[in-house]
Amino acid sequence: MFILFSNLLGVIPTFESPTMAPAVPLGIAVATFLYYNGAGIKAQGIVGHIKHFMGPVWWLAPFMFGIEIISHLIRPVSLTIRLFANMLAGEQVTIAFMNLIPIGAPAILMGLHTFVSFLQAFIFMILSMAYVGMAVAHEDH
Predict the structure, then answer these.
(1) Who's near 118: CB < 8 A, 6+ residues apart?
(2) What pLDDT is stored for residue 9 in this prediction?
(3) Which phi and psi (to 5°) does residue 65 adopt?
(4) CA angle centred on 20, ends 31 and 26, rounded to 5°
(5) Annotated catalytic residue within 6, 86, 117, 128
(6) Degrees to nearest 5, angle at CA 29 with 24 and 30
(7) Phi-psi category of 13—alpha, beta or left, where left has phi over 0 and alpha has psi -120 to 50?
(8) Which of 78, 99, 117, 128 is catalytic?
(9) Lower CB count within 10 Å: N or C terminus of the chain?
(10) Is 78 a catalytic site residue?
(11) pTM
């Protein structure tokens, strides 16, 4: 909900969306990272959570472990860049069109910016839920 409301602040004239500053989406992404790893450890224990990084077969474990660690460490970066860049780009496009066509176009672009805000909050939420779901999933062998 915080992401949605902070994104929508950019629609109000003279306000700026807080998610346009890289520190805000980074903080939310790091909190998501810590939460889904904590949930994975709680659901499977430390050993079970680490086994999750090893892959499906034992002989691929050394290779898969490195790939999985990199994959998990890059998730906060991916979430941050996706949210920050999309909100910044939406704001820049709106400002550019407001300077080109000051009457009429801003209202249409504010509607588009509102849609993008909802969409980005939804994507962030779905990815966070997917990460938690993957972290707590028990694999049957």
Answers:
(1) 4, 7
(2) 59
(3) -60, -45
(4) 20
(5) 86
(6) 100
(7) beta
(8) 78
(9) C
(10) yes
(11) 0.81
